[in-house]
Amino acid sequence: MQQKIAHRTKKHNQKDTTPAPSIILCRPQMGENIGAAARAMLNFELTDLRIVAPRDGWPNERADATASGAFDVMPEPRIFDTLKEAISDIHFTIATSARRRDMVKPVYNPVNAMNELLTRAGNNQKTGIVFGAERTGLTNEEISLCQALMNVPTNPDFASLNLSQSVMLGAYEWHKIAKSNDYSQSEPPALNPNDSFPAPQGEISSFIERLENDLEKRRFFRTPEMKPTVMVNIRNIFTRTDITDQELRTLHGILSALRGNKTGK
C-alpha cells in the first residue's frame, strides 16, 4: 500500500521535459544512499522517485542530509510496501543486476537500456528502472515482475557498485541520449492508434494472482516448496512480453470459460 507522507514546500516551478523513467529503490537499507540517489537523479532531470519498504522508514533525516537539497526541488518520493504496488501504473520496467540470472529476459547494457526506455516513452508508455537493496540486490521474485534486465559491464573480479552510483550511471545515460535525440524510433515499432496499448503492470499482476488462485484450487502445485519457483517462471512468461490490454482481457475470458463462467471474472 502506498503510504502518505508529509508535504514538503517546493521551491521550483514545473516544466515539461522528455518523459523520464521512474526510479524505484527496492528495500534500500541506508538513508544516505537514498539521498545520494535523489541527488544523482536531479543532476540529470529525473524526479519521480519511488521507494519500496525502506529499512529505516520514511521520512529519513540522513537521506535529507545527503540529498543536498534535492528533496526540496523534486516531488515527494512515494513510499510503497511492495514492488508490485510501486510499478502498478508502469508499462515497462528494467531491473538492474550485477549478474546474469537464470531467467529468459532481454539483457541490456546501460546505453541500450536507455534507448529502449526513450523509444517507449515516445510511444506514451510509462517506464521505470528498479534497483535492489545495497547488500543483496533484487530477488528473483522481484526481477520476475520486470520486463528486462540491465547489466553494467564492470570488472568481473569486482562488480560492486554503490546504489547511488548505479542510479547516476543510468540517469546520466538517459539524460545524454534524451538531450541528443539520438535514439531509435523503430525498435520496438510505434503503436498504431488502432492497436491495443501495453497493459500496466498492476493489471498484469492482478491477472497472475487470479491465475495463481485458480492453479492452487486445482492442486497444480505438487508441493508447497515448488510453488515459489513455478510462480517466478509463470510471471516471467507474462512480464517479458509486451502483453496488451486486449490480450489480457482475452486471458481473463479464457480463465472465466475454464471456470464455467463466460460472463465475467
Provide tags for this entry.
265 residues, alpha/beta, Alpha/beta knot, 2 domains, seven-stranded parallel β-sheet, 10 helices, 7 strands, 41% helix, 10% strand, globular
Give an overview of the whole structure.
By secondary structure, this protein is an alpha/beta fold. It is built from ten helices and seven strands. The protein has a seven-stranded parallel beta sheet with strand order 3-2-1-6-4-7-5. Strand 1, helix 1 and strand 2 (49-52) form a beta-alpha-beta unit. The longest helix has 18 residues, at 163-180. Residues 11-16 and 185-194 have low confidence and may be disordered.
Please identify the structural class as seen in this structure. alpha/beta
CA(first)-CA(last) distance = 24 Å
Nearest-integer average pLDDT: 85
Total helical elements: 10
- CATH class of the largest domain equals Alpha Beta
CATH superfamily of the largest domain: SPOUT methyltransferase, trefoil knot domain
Strand content: 5-15%
Helix content: 40-55%
